[in-house]
Inverse folding.
């Protein structure tokens, strides 16, 4: 059983388009969708309605930077500070490179970020690339390949 | 130059200055003196010469009642009324004597109190007519004329003439003391046969300090005959105080033998001096001499004293007037200077723009403003390095904001080259934090002083005592190395200017701080604006593009060809809008992010831009003419963007040409590097040249040449951030040339310095 991909996105259009992109990348992983940071943390920390969910962490966390209630940075912080969650690869989805919080996201140990391209074809390519890399290939402990791969992902989205 | 021997001279003057001239123990014999005790009015002391005057031995008078001597019954009341506040002798009246050989004779009695003693001086009586004859014209004409007099010299001349009229002395001269105490003769009346001293200087050592003190307090002194025999007081010590009698204010006080010798050497037997005391300072003297012995009645003396007081008032008024006028003029100059500085927003620029005002301000030949690393000067000044050295020297003194010297070789011997150019400086600090100075320079003013004889008293080689000089022949001294002295008003004006400049600087600093604050605020706003633009505008565009794409893929088959074209247009429009937003963002970023200056090889950059764009022109025929390019100091990534834009434009606007010609080159100017990119494209109409570099300004229709209208605006912004400029040259259908000029920067210059 493949671990699921956890997608946290509040904008319904972005959500739909991202799901289409993930679908097209032909990943076999389930996609769990959460609509804000609080829901995402409940899921990750198995709180509230997720108390009885199956064991295990998602294969990758696709996290929008701007989220209602608890924003993406805070989710990232909690993930990195919680021993049981620390090893989850986190990919930030941002609307543009201009986002001032991007630097902070890096400081807090995000594994990659994607500036959502306006062109849909580019978007599909970026998402599937990410999905394949983090959800399928990513088995070694986080950090060992991070730097190199991160740069590659960046270049792709430049 | 004179061969001065300051040590021995100073010693001699000091001994002279020690002579207790206020307690000589004797009087001049042209009258007699009694000291009486109060309230019983018994005689305590008498001058020995009472014997000659009234035929009674001094010793015999001691202890006797005044009433035995003088018959006037109301004398005790009149004496009691003599004030102790004004210690100058007061004519209490003419009295008749009852005793001895002089019985029945009348004497003028002058009384004054000093140090608790009632001192009575008796002289021959004058006539009431004489008093009227001297005082009335003094009041009527002299006072009126004084008001009309315009200069100090003419005021003094009037006083001299008036004194001549009252006293009849052979030579009368009025002189003013300078700061050292040397007296310069301003006005003179000399009868035939008397040497003239007009314009001459009398050295300070002629009048010892304690004599000056007496002159200040007691306005008038008369020596009717320099050959007099002093008459001692009997007894020598005052029986009440047990000390010699203080004769400071007595008109009969005997003078120093040094002074009498001085008079005889000068060829005069009679002298009178009247003090001019202005604001409690001994401003000058009117000194009268006569070759013959000459009596001055107490009425005349009173008139002279009154004249001296009127004169002093007039001098005071005249000097205050002059001072006020100078202050006003200086204030006026300060206002002009400050206005100049404020107009140009710079102390230095204001200074440079008003050289005449700067120089007039301190009546100087040259002036300079020295700040951190700059030295700007006007007029005649020493070499720049010397000015900077001087500023350092002044800063190192750490003694207040003002420094002045009228003799640099004496006061700043460390900088001999400076003194070769200028004799004096006035410097004032114009910053509380930094060694910044305003400095005025004055050149040497060679002065010839006409001394009335050698300006030292001769020292008796054997006794060491001073003997007054014998020669009053004009002796010229040439004084070198001095500039005209800096007046107090000039020094005060400099301080006033300093305060005003500090005020300007402070206000400017505050304005800058406020401006910087506002700028930070608006930058912040801009950032949050870009953020929301990027985030909120980009997202819907992304959605439109995404859904259009999906729609076209999934349902495209059901649409007509036209419908599919529409869908394609929607997608293109959304993508274009996305690019527009991205470009706008990077444009706004250009204005905010700091410049990272480094060596930039323009040739290499051009080559990399050409490589990068190869896909765009591979299929076209493009002839490149790339000339050698220099290395400049600039922000590499920004300049890369500039070249990419300009070369991209050149390619774009030659797209319709069969054979595109693109020439890229650069040339060096003294203070900038000019880079140009020339093409043979569609060109532009020069009347729109000023619009080329504006945001969203396009000179072509969209379908002719695609673009967001932001490229050249970015180029201009980047170049201007470097402190450079951009311009273009072109004609419709004749190609275009774009230029940008970058100033020669150094690595240390921060981007902000270059922001306009």
């Amino acid at each position: 059983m493949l671990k699921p991909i956890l997608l946290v996105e509040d904008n319904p259009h972005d959500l739909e388009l991202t799901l289409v992109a993930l679908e097209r990348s032909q990943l076999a992983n389930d996609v769990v969708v959460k609509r804000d940071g609080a829901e995402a943390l409940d899921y990750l920390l198995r709180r509230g309605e997720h108390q009885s969910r199956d064991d295990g962490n998602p294969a990758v966390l696709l996290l929008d930077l701007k989220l209602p209630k608890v924003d993406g940075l805070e989710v990232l912080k909690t993930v990195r500070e919680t021993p049981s969650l620390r090893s989850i690869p986190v990919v930030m989805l941002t609307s543009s490179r201009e986002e001032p919080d991007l630097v902070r996201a890096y400081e807090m140990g995000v594994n990659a970020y994607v500036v959502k391209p306006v062109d849909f074809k580019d978007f599909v390519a970026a998402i599937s690339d990410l999905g394949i890399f983090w959800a399928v290939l990513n088995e070694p402990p986080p950090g060992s390949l991070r730097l190199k791969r991160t740069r590659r992902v960046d270049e792709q989205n430049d | 130059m004179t061969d001065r021997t300051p040590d021995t001279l100073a010693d001699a003057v000091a001994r002279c200055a020690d002579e207790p001239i206020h307690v000589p123990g004797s009087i001049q014999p042209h009258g007699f003196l009694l000291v009486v005790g109060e309230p019983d009015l018994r005689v305590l002391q008498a001058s020995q010469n009472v014997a000659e005057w009234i035929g009674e031995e001094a010793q015999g008078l001691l202890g006797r009642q005044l009433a035995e001597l003088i018959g006037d019954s109301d004398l005790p009341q009149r004496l009691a009324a003599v004030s102790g506040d004004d210690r100058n002798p007061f004519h209490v009246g003419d009295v008749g004597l009852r005793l001895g050989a002089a019985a029945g004779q009348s004497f003028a009695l002058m009384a004054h109190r000093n140090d608790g003693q009632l001192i009575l001086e008796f002289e021959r009586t004058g006539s009431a007519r004489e008093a009227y004859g001297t005082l009335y014209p003094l009041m009527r004409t002299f006072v009126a004329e004084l008001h009309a007099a315009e200069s100090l010299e003419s005021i003094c001349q009037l006083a001299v003439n008036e004194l001549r009229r009252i006293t009849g002395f052979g030579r009368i001269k009025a002189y003013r003391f300078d700061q050292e105490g040397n007296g310069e003769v301003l006005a003179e009346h000399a009868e035939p046969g008397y040497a003239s001293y007009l314009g001459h200087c009398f050295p300070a050592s002629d009048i010892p300090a304690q004599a000056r003190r007496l002159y200040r307090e007691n306005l008038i002194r008369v020596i009717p005959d320099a050959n007099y025999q002093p008459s001692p007081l009997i007894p020598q010590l005052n029986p009440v105080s047990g000390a010699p009698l203080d004769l400071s204010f007595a008109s009969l006080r005997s003078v120093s033998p040094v002074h009498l010798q001085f008079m005889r050497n000068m060829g005069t037997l009679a002298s009178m001096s009247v003090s001019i005391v202005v604001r409690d300072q001994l401003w000058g003297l009117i000194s009268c001499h006569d070759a013959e012995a000459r009596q001055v009645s107490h009425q005349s003396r009173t008139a002279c004293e009154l004249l001296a007081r009127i004169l002093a008032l007039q001098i005071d008024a005249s000097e205050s007037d002059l001072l006020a006028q100078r202050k006003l003029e200086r204030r006026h100059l300060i206002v002009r200077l400050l206005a100049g500085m404020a107009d140009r927003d710079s102390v230095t620029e204001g200074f440079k723009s008003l050289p005449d005002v700067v120089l007039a301000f301190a009546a100087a030949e040259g002036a300079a403003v020295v700040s951190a690393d700059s030295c700007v000067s006007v007029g005649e000044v020493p070499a720049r390095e010397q000015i900077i050295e001087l500023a350092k020297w002044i800063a190192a003194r750490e003694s207040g904001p003002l420094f002045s010297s009228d003799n640099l070789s004496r006061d700043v011997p460390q900088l001999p080259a400076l003194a070769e150019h200028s004799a004096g400086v006035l410097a004032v600090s114009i910053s509380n934090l930094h060694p910044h100075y305003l400095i005025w320079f004055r050149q040497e003013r060679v002065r010839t002083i006409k001394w009335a004889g050698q300006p030292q008293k001769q020292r008796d080689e054997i006794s060491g005592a001073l003997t007054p000089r014998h020669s009053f022949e004009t002796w010229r001294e040439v004084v070198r190395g001095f500039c005209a002295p800096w007046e107090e008003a000039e020094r005060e004006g400099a301080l006033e200017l300093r305060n005003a400049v500090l005020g300007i600087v402070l206000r400017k600093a505050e304005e800058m701080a406020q401006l910087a604050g506002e700028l930070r605020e608006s930058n912040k706003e801009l950032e949050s604006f870009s953020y929301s633009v990027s985030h909120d505008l980009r997202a819907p565009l992304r959605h439109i593009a995404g859904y259009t794409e999906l729609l076209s893929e999934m349902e495209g088959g059901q649409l007509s060809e036209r419908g599919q074209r529409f869908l394609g247009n929607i997608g293109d429009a959304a993508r274009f809008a996305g690019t527009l937003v991205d470009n706008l963002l990077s444009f706004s970023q250009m204005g905010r992010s700091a410049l990272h200056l480094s060596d930039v090889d323009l040739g290499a950059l051009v080559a990399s831009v050409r490589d990068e764009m190869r896909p765009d022109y591979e299929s076209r025929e493009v002839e490149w003419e790339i000339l050698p390019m220099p290395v400049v100091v600039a922000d590499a990534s920004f300049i890369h963007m500039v070249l990419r834009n300009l070369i991209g434009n050149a390619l774009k606007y030659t797209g319709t040409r069969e054979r595109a010609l693109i020439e890229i080159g650069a040339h060096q100017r003294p203070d900038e590097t000019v880079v140009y990119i020339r093409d043979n494209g569609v060109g532009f109409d020069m009347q729109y040249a000023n619009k080329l570099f504006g945001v969203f300004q396009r000179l072509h229709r969209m379908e002719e040449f695609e673009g967001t209208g932001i490229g050249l605006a970015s180029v201009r912004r980047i170049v201007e951030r470097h402190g450079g400029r951009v311009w273009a040259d072109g004609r419709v259908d004749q190609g275009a040339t774009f230029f940008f000029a970058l100033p020669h920067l150094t690595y240390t210059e921060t981007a902000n310095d270059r922001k306009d």
About this structure: The first helix of chain B runs from residue 6 to 18.
